[in-house]
Amino acid sequence: xxxxxxxxxxxxxxxxxxxxPDATSIDTTGIKWVINPYDEYAVEEAIKYREANASAGAxxxxxxxxxxxxxxxxxxxxxxxxxxxxxxxNAPEDIDCYSTARALAEVIKSEKxxxxxxxxxxxxxxxxxxxxQMLGEFLGIPHATVVSxxxxxxxxxxxxxxxxxxxxxIINMTAPAIIGANKGLNTPRYASLPGIMKAKKKxxxxxxFASLNIPATDIKVKYSQLSLPAEKPSVKMLMGDSAHxxxxxxxxxxxxxxxx
Amino acid sequence: MSKVxxxxxxxxxxxxxxxxxxxxxxxxxxxxxxxxVVGTGAEKAATEMGYHGAQxxxxxKDSNLDAYNPELYLSALSSVLEKTQPQILLAxxxxxxxDLFPRIAAHLKTGVVSDCVELSISGDSITxxxxxxxxxxxxxxxxxxxxxxxxxxxxxxxxxxxxDTSKTMVLVEHALTKPDLKTVIKEIVKGASEKLDxxxxxxIISGGRGxxxxxxxxxxxxxxxVLGATVGASRAVVDAGWVSHGMQxxxxxxxxxxxxxxxxxxxxAIQHLAGMSxxxxxxxxxxxxxxxxxxxxxxxxxxxxxxxxxxxxEEFKKVxxx
Lengths: 260, 322
Hints:
The complex is a heterodimer of chains A (260) and B (322).
Chain A: E1 2-6, E2 9-11, E3 33-35, H1 37-52, E4 59-66, H2 68-81, E5 85-90, H3 97-111, E6 114-120, H4 131-139, E7 143-153, E8 156-162, E9 168-173, E10 178-181, H5 193-199, E11 204-208, E12 221-227, E13 236-237, H6 242-255
Parallel strand pairs in A: 1-4, 1-6, 4-5, 5-11, 6-10, 7-10
Antiparallel strand pairs in A: 2-3, 7-8, 8-9
Chain B: E1 3-7, E2 10-11, E3 14-15, H1 17-28, E4 32-38, H2 42-51, E5 56-60, H3 70-84, E6 88-92, H4 95-107, E7 111-116, E8 118-122, E9 125-132, E10 137-143, E11 149-153, E12 170-173, E13 183-189, E14 203-207, H5 217-227, E15 230-233, H6 235-239, E16 260-264, H7 270-276, E17 281-286, H8 293-296, E18 299-302, H9 305-321
Parallel strand pairs in B: 1-4, 1-6, 4-5, 5-12, 6-11, 7-11, 14-15, 14-16, 16-17, 17-18
Antiparallel strand pairs in B: 2-3, 8-9, 9-10
């Protein structure tokens, strides 16, 4: 049985975003790329599952769609954490969620023997939270996103999904299924030094996006006019003793900001 | 004329504010406004959708749709969408919609954009502005090769007009076609709070390490009760186990954009700012004048929160009574 984990590379949270002159993309020079934080939970859950069910002989495959040279680094990191094999789908930077999901679906279909698929609930760059559900549809299998608890039994998969107001849905799905990981699912391990050494010898296969015959009409969304947030006027500090500060704050909220 | 389809969520038949915002935007576009609402109480919600500008509302009253099941909702929505053939679909970016509509988009071979904060409709075309890179940039999403353009808007971004109870709509009822389910919702475990979710709340009061211990969140709860606000938290106090992860605002928690955000004892780590910098008015209360939160704030108070918050609660009580 194969367990697939789909991961994305995103700029590190601390990155200062600069926009290219054509305003359709960001300037990627000097950016430190990391595995999308939610995808780390996905990698961890897949490895944990394999370890807990060693007799099942499952293998963990990590996949990523993007410029080969760069995303290979993310895959090596996942291999160093303990994934067994990596697959790069070498694609242009700007393909959208729909085409990404189509590409992942094609590759996963051709690999066969899918037991489970893990992803992050969303990627923190475009914040689209779309690929997992689209992949589920293209593969014709059930999905659950924002998952903070996962269990597997021969009857299928049981997950807890976080919804509004701190509530949770307990969901059963038939396998194979796609699980979109949320924070809280686990604590991702760090890649150990022996893990990093081993990862260098693991298989990292490369597939050309172009070879998957995904039509250009499968690009559904394009971004333009990227902009930085408007500068906020500087903070108004309220002085005096606390009684005075509080009275002034409430008056400003009511009369100046008009939010009460 | 083009058709704009608004999928509404409701609570016991009362429309959520987000749906009213979308109906208003759809109406303003001059297109035909078609609504859809499902589950127990859908008929009452449909009437309200009419008051807010829907000309025709499709309803499936089946109680199987009271809880969200992606497969049932996909079946319900796609059959109505195939019958009505709209060019644009609007829904609020709730946990249901964000899970459902990408799957619907894949099913209908079309595009979807989530978490938008502005939209512009002209005839059958729509563009939407959305935050990227945790709010450090914005982009305009443009649809291509999309027979149906699906836009999920964050709540509290658009104006709502008062309900016009003289307006009527045409109610169209459908039965639910139940597919063989691969997904079963076994149970819904209620959260501790009956308040509006952080992502929908108009006022949020967030607490951080400055509160010193979990029990002191009661100060914020008292203030929240006076303001009708929802209480949130920083990652530090969630990781410390003071409050549940559902309350976390920021990078690995929720992204919020209320009208008023009051940060109490929150230093303002970049991960926190990523989740709340879209708020309209930000108040920071912290004893450290160097706390980064002040750089994002509209109003700042340097002071002892244990002194300031109870006074603030009393002051709001006085003012809001009038």
